[in-house]
Amino acid sequence: MSSSPSSSPLRPSFVRLCAALSIGLMLVFMLPGEASARYASIVVDAASGRIVHARHIDTRLYPASMTKMMTLYLLFEALDTGKLSLDSRLPVSARAAGQPPTKLGLPAGSTIAVRDAIRALVTRSANDIATVVAEAVGTTEVNFARMMTAKARSLGMRNTTFLNASGLPNSGQKSTARDMAILSLSLMRHFPHYYHYFGTESFRYGNRTIGTHNHLMKRYSGADGLKTGYIRASGFNIAFSATRNGRRLIGVVFGGRSARSRDDHMAELMDSGFRTIVQAGYSPNSGDRIRVVARPDLPSGVAPIPPALPPGKIAEPQIAAVPTTGLTDVIERLVVMPKPDPVGGEGDATTTAAMIVPAPRPDPAAAQDGAATGPETPGTWGIQVGAFSSLTSAEAAARDAAGLLAARPAGIKVRVIPHGIHEGKVYRARLLGMDSEEQARDACRDLRARQRSCLVVVPKGWTVASR
Length: 467
Description:
The longest helix has 20 residues, at 11-30. A hairpin with a 3-residue loop joins strand 7 and strand 8 (235-244). The strands form 4 sheets. A 5-stranded antiparallel sheet has the order 2-1-9-8-7, with helices on both faces. It has a 5-stranded mixed sheet with strand order 10-14-11-13-12, covered by helices on one side. By secondary structure, the chain is α+β, with helices and mostly antiparallel strands. It has helices at 11-30, 68-80, 94-97, 114-122, 127-138, 141-154, 177-190, 216-219, 259-277, 366-369, 391-404, 437-449; strands at residues 40-45, 51-55, 89-91, 111-113, 202-205, 208-211, 223-231, 235-244, 247-256, 356-357, 381-388, 413-421, 424-434, 455-457. Helix 5 (127-138) packs across helix 6.
């Protein structure tokens, strides 16, 4: 006599098995990465450092190519200290040329400009170029990795160890979601004049167009960078930044199963985070926070300028100097500068796109600190691309802007004009020597299309006009 299904002794076990399989499938398909031991995620309110989402944020995992954010941090330091310039040529060693893909593929004995090295790291995540940078800054990649770890500790990244510049597999190279969020914010706040590179979608190198691996940046509203990463041991990682309605979030995800599912998950976390920070009763200074240390070389009382924001998302600030009180949120505030003063202020931030600022009177201190090569020539127009707390940063910004102009006017001169203020001194980065207001406005239009700040500077002795 056959037994009915309901009387079969196998039935309860079969039901339990089906239930277990269903739960497993839910974890795999409905909760990206949560079922994986290599998963972690964090979302941070960039203004305050408050953590608005956290999963396994102090678990040590493989950072993969997010490592290159620290490589770039040390490269930016080398630029600001004058060890390198954006035009410096970095040699490609046999060791660098032999790094595995992804890579730019430069042969040993060739060179690459620092400007292109930055873009290659951000877009292609080029392992060969990471080694090129490491050897240029640290002599050897081993020594550079020690510098990376030491810098991580100084920034408060307590659970991070770097052993190479690229993020290629190494069992001892580990970081955490919290630490990668600290690094992301540190890059933004310490090097706002270089942060725009993280928004690079593509660039031309020789006869090639190099595109970014960060596809989420192209499809997420308000996105402006940072960095993706992948090795087999880590899964698909990303550090991500976006701004909506004047509020910025930083997100980090470790351990995605695919680039697409990682991006979708990151987008969901960011959407949820933006909903959280606009809710009534949200307190940015309550709860767990990450903290970003100030750059030790910044003059006392002077904070860095914020990074450029995507066009049309929020009025772009024109910053000279901001007291360090509340430094943790200076990046996210829309800082409104005073009306133009007799020595050439920056203008109201809400009208900077249309303002023409006057050239300042020569600063007596200019000859002492060598910041300017002399006052601008009477009767020539120019543009201002920012005001910075250090001479090297201003020079780098001015040279970078000059290199980006689609049609660089003949005879253009890079000038840095120091300006004393009651908090200290700032350095105005300018390009001078243009023949007409139209030429200056065209230059600003070109730079703004590339997400750069720009103001037209009238010839010396002219009156201020606004339109």
